[in-house]
Specification:
binds adenosine-5'-triphosphate; 5 helices; 2 domains; alpha/beta; single chain; 10 strands; six-stranded mixed β-sheet
Length: 220
Amino acid sequence: MEAIKVEHLSFGYTGDVPILEDVNLKIDEGDYVILTGENGSGKSTFLKLVLGQLSPNQGKIELLGRDMASGSFRGLKIGYVPQNSISGNQDFPATVEEVMRTGLYRPLGKRLSRKECNKRVLQALTELGMEDFLKRRIGELSGGQQQRVMLARVLADEPKLLILDEPTVGVDSSSIQALCEILEKKHKEGLTILMVTHGNTRIFAGANRHLRAEEGGITE
Ligand SMILES: Nc1ncnc2c1ncn2[C@@H]1O[C@H](COP(=O)(O)OP(=O)(O)OP(=O)(O)O)[C@@H](O)[C@H]1O
């Protein structure tokens, strides 16, 4: 099955200026895809459409077999790591552990046990080399460390599709290295990954597809 299927997708913020025009794209389950492109080429807009934060003017988007127009995304196992979500706010009033727990929120009746939550939190932090930071306030961490925590947070929820927006911006080289390694490992375990990046794409050697946004299209 396709993880993401886009057919004849067109979008513009204002009626007469199209940002994306008749985009057709299939991302298979298990793909590890890097999406690059110049500033303003529509990468973030594309992610927002895929995540249901924007609605297409025309066309169709299916995620893990579900039509996004149905408005029913509940239960879809999608992990999203936005760009620099915490940085700049040193007083953000939560510890790493508390931030991790918010990623495991479930409605009443479907909640994970405390033991299972603790296990997943520690396992995911350990995978990213961040287990010693469990009790630290997240705002005190470097940008790269925060980014690792935010990735651990979504991985703890065991997504089927992982979407990352510019995960290397403002991040130190050891965190970029840790990011590359974990993404390669997760890709080998079968996780589908879509990552927008400006950075040096050669460091993401594990990716099996490279896409480029330009002139309203997205090409291989
Ligand atoms: N909310 C908005 N309202 C109007 N125009 C917007 C809005 N958001 C983005 N745009 C415009 O849409 C175009 C694509 O922007 P987008 O942010 O998708 O590009 P990008 O490829 O992600 O750029 P960057 O690499 O700089 O993040 C740009 O011309 C931008 O000015």
